[in-house]
Structure formats: structure tokens, C-alpha cells
Amino acid sequence: MISSTEVIDELKRIVKQKGLKYTEQREIVLNILINAEGHLSAEEIYNLIKSKKRESSIGIATVYRALSFLEEVNLITSIAFGADGKKYESNTKEHHDHLICTNCGKIVEFMDNEIEKRQDNVAKKNNFKITSHSMQLYGVCDTCQ
Amino acid sequence: MISSTEVIDELKRIVKQKGLKYTEQREIVLNILINAEGHLSAEEIYNLIKSKKRESSIGIATVYRALSFLEEVNLITSIAFGADGKKYESNTKEHHDHLICTNCGKIVEFMDNEIEKRQDNVAKKNNFKITSHSMQLYGVCDTCQ
DNA sequence: GTCAATGCAAATCGTTTGCATGAAC
DNA sequence: GTTCATGCAAACGATTTGCATTGAC
Asked: B122 and A137: CB-CB below 8 Å?
């Protein structure tokens, strides 16, 4: 687990190293994801920014550009939750998979070392060099049953 | 594994039972998915129909409507492959997961009983009643490395 | 004849792009 | 001052909808 200031510093480092510019907007987007409980869509992030700090405006295009950039430099990760489109989470979190309630939308994160090991195994057997994986279990949660 | 005529009969049964109408279009879409090797998008199915039988026309909207319907009654399943949008496969196939090459798009299907077992376990521990799951391993395949 | 399904075109949604302007360096 | 990032609006691709017509029953 990495602290949030460390991630922001990392962003500054990457931006400088690439000869790019450090902007408030990229920091805001990253900060929101660091402090977010769950997984956010581009639109949700956009709305959060607009409602929280009404003095500074931000364009939805900038949110998308920031998200692509942050994912490219591996500070955040996107996951495609069914039809709902892409959602993002910051990489400050440990790796984990998702249990999703199809009724209320509740998401429980979990991690199973044995599954991870077996996934690597499957990949090896098929001569794939794994870069990432995505695993979601869909069902009905405790309270919704 | 279920035979393709059985699936078509199943479709006829469901349609009748729901008091709906049996149309050639729904049958065509289902048939394409039954006979398809891999996973097809709505657009790919649409193009297949247009090229194969140029006498009968079909609208893209009808393809989408047929796909939603068939998924709803559980004759086909959709999977969201990253940014490429939804793809469909018929439920005649055994359950399996996917290994996806991020370079050439090649998809390898696999099945691991131990992983399945562990998934059920995780669900039980969290009091979820699992309805389905989706698992994709992303990486670079043999020939692309 | 009734009602659902279709085909088409228009509408909508999420996302991306072009371009002039503004901000970081 | 140069160059990258931004904001806006227009463009885009995938999917959905409204509506008049067609086809299954």
C-alpha cells in the first residue's frame, strides 16, 4: 500500500521525466480516485469536480484525457463492469477482484492467492505472457436475497 | 453440450410461452451464434447476415433487439472485451473463461475446475448467491511475443 | 383483425478530436 | 516564448428509440 502524497509525487516525477506539464486538473482527477471508496466512471468524476469546487471549471474531455494518461502511466486501473462502461480505481489499492451484486450494485473486493496462482499456470500452459486480468463474480448479495 | 436444433426448439418454446411471435430474424441471429467459431459483435452478425443472404434484409436495430432478447432468455451470453464493446456467444458451449492477446486479439478459451471451486467459495464466504462470472486474462500470446 | 416485430431514420449515450486560447516551464 | 494542456463544440461509433409498416398468430 502506497500513501496518497507518494502517488501525487510519483505523478509529478513522471510528468517531469516525460517533459510534460504538471496541471491542476490531472492532480484533481488522481486525488479523487485516491480518496474514492469505490470505482468511478469518467462522468461521475466530472460531476464530483463540478459540484465540489464550483470556482474552477473542468471539461469532460479533460477528465477523459487525464484518465487515459493516468492509466497509461499505471497510476490508475480501469475495469469494464458489464454494460455500465469503464470505471476507474487508483493503484494505491492492493490487487483484488470483484464480487458484484446485480441487484443493488454493491461491490465487494476480494483476493485469493490460489486463484492467482492458477491463473498464472493457465497462462504459462498457453504460452501467454500475462499483463493483467479482470475477474468479476456476479450474484445477489446478502441483504438483497 | 446441447445440440443446435434443441436450442432452436428451445427458442420456439420460450417465444410461444411468452405469447410472443416467432420470427425468422431471431432464428437467424441465434443460428449464426450457434455456428460461430468465436465471439461476435452485433455489427459482425449484422454484416454476416447481409453478405450471406442478400435476398432477405435485416436492420441493425433488429440485430440488437434480437441479441438483447436472446440474452434475456439465457440462450446466449455477452462478454465485454475491454474497449472493443460487447461480443456474444451461444450457450451451447460449455462454461469457460478467456485468455486474450492484447496484441492480435486472439482468444483462447480455458476452464479450471479448481478456480471455479474457489470462486464458489469466495461467494459463499461473502453470502453472495452467484449467478454468473466473467474472467479474462490479458496478455501477449505465443506468436506475438 | 390484433398485436408484436421489423426496418428505417432520428435520437441518444459515452467518448474522442480539432482548434483557438490559456498555463506551465 | 515555446510547447503542452485545456475548454468548448463538433464529430464519432455503438446502441436505442419513435413510428409507420409488415408479418405471425
From this structure: yes
